[in-house]
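Fold description:
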Amino acid sequence: MSYLDEMMDVTRIEPLFTRADGTYLCARWGRPIVPVVFGVEDDTIGLMKGAFEAVCALAGHQMAETDPELGVNVMMFFCRDWDELTGVRDLDRLVPELAQLVTRLIKADANQYRIFRFDEAGAIRACFIFLRMDDQLAQVPPETLALSQAVQSIVLWSDVAFSASSPLALIDGNAVLRPDVAGVIRAVYDPVMPPVAQDASHALRLAARIEVPQ
């Protein structure tokens, strides 16, 4: 890899983990992923879990049947209106800020939101995914929605990482993970990389582990 190629990679990688407030933060899962899906038909549940299996395989990470501490550690909630979340039994115990969150989501007219929880080392220990099936999301094919959510949950990306472009691309009408994003995920899960990083020099180390097309 030439110096020029490396620097070009860094300029693409660093923004993926640089938050809107200018801080750098990257984290990966520190335990096997155990997803559960609420509010959709069984076929969609299978698609969601299949997407997580595919992304975990890409990352070299594991899935499991149960989390010894939490039971499940990825919870996906589908709803038609954000107010429905306040009626989900015990959800406010898992997400103490639920009432305030619902108010913010309604005000922002958002259709999706993710909350991450972290262990003592800073690695991801749980993720809550909320999806409001408005007209926009209802037009997204289930396979595309499943893959998008799995990709955005396998790593703690910046809150603005994909605001301008999706992590997915269309090939022959089918949504697939962009090769550059796939390379970053694999690099983040390289065993020699730390489970969490808060310094932008981390992006240099990621760049060194991504194979650049010639």
